[in-house]
Design a protein that fits this description.
The structure is a single chain. The protein has 280 residues and is of the alpha/beta class. The protein has one domain: Rossmann fold, CATH 3.40.50. The chain is 45% helix and 19% strand. It is built from twelve helices and eight strands. An eight-stranded mixed β-sheet has the order 1-2-4-3-5-6-7-8, with helices on both faces. A hairpin with a 2-residue loop joins strand 1 and strand 2. The protein starts with a strand and ends in a 10-residue tail after the last helix. 47% of the residues are buried. Bound molecules: D-malate. D-malate (MLT) binds next to loops.
Length: 280
Amino acid sequence: MGRARSIRVHAGDAELAVAVRGEGAPLLFVHGFPFDHTMWRHQLGSLDGWRRIAPDLRGVRVSTPPRGGYTMARYADDLAAVLDALVIERATVCGQSLGGYIVFELLRRHPDRVGALVLVATKPDADTPEGQGARDQVVAQTEREGPAAVADRMLPRLLGRTTRATRPGVAEAVRQMAGGWSVPGMVGAQRAMRARPDSTETLRGLRLPALVIGGEEDEIAPPPVVRAMGALILNAQVEIVPGAGHVVPLERPADTTRALAAFLGRLAAGGALPRRGAPG
Ligand code: MLT
């Protein structure tokens, strides 16, 4: 197993910390809100034979552009900058929730950088008006009370009932990750998500090897939404993980890694990855 190292990548007006581990075909992990790259700790520590790459998003821990430095386009360009810095043309890209929204934007802006796709607990829809109202409340709370208060408010919805009842350490890990977000980073992420477009047409008929993972107890991206998203992508494989809420890779780490390893094993056995194109 390769040792973990952390590099710094300059991406426009931000500097990103990027964990890099192992050797092999590149596998890029994109975390959600309000997490950081350590939400992938089990996957980063496993999956030998792949070069695992996991940045912290702009505004999380290392460097914080001022307000206004946060859009889906900037987040997607940051991923392209990470690949550039590591001299990687194309990667298998795995995004959870907000990370998934960013991957949709990467598919629109930099389609040639994505060789295969793993979508975890995410959804293609734009925010509803109610959802946008909730974002405004989170923004106001972040500015008033700071990131820790936001984590406490979100936790009951983030974790599945099984995790809440049996694994208190996961809530603590989420609190710690949220504590690494800056106020502009948190506000910026909420505004970027509020403004994101519907990605249904980006995924419809997509011809990339794809794995879609959902949590059985997820209220944010519930199983029917995850299944419907998987049905948009040609031949996507859908896995619903029992006993998990929204933070599947942390709540059911071994199950998530197992599903990923099986998918990656099939990719490796299949040789050259198919290109993106219109349905035939
Ligand atoms: C996330 O987990 O990234 C967020 O909860 C997604 C969202 O708020 O839509």
